[in-house]
Amino acid sequence: MKKIMFMVAACAAMVACNNGKTTTNADSTDSVTQDSVAAVDSAVYEGMTPAADVAGIKYRVALAKDSSNGFNVSEAYMKSDSEADTVYNYTGNYVVLKKDVKGKENTYYQFDLGKDNKVNFLVVNDSTLRLVNTDFEEPATNSKDMNYDLKLK
């Protein structure tokens, strides 16, 4: 009986320690999570970035435009241009960073997407965010097929 109770407690602890990350399949959507930030005055950016093992990663980033700096990020790993395989949703507070990269001061948004997973976006202009690496460097690509930009919707 003690072993069964221990297993139940261990399972409950694993569910409770999900770090704000939810997983859904392509057929279901987590509209409550996505709309919680979008319901307030927010800016929503969307775009698909290249990926090695899937057709691309479709990002949807909703930023609260108030002092809370709240965010909702959806990462959809795409089977094709229109069909998602796995979707991850994250919420929290983003950090605004000013960094001098290659002699130019830029503004970046940093999102904590779970354990040791921080994602950085360069604020290109009022309507574009660009995915950058951990050193805040832009992707080295000139191809239109390799687009790392998210556009304001």
TrEMBL record:
Residues 1-18 form the signal peptide. It comes from the Bacteria. PROSITE patterns: PROKAR_LIPOPROTEIN. Keywords: Signal. Gene3D superfamilies: 2.40.128.640. The keyword NAD does not apply. InterPro entries: Cu-R_lipoprotein_NlpE (IPR007298). Pfam families: NlpE. This is Copper resistance protein NlpE N-terminal domain-containing protein. It comes from Prevotella fusca JCM 17724.
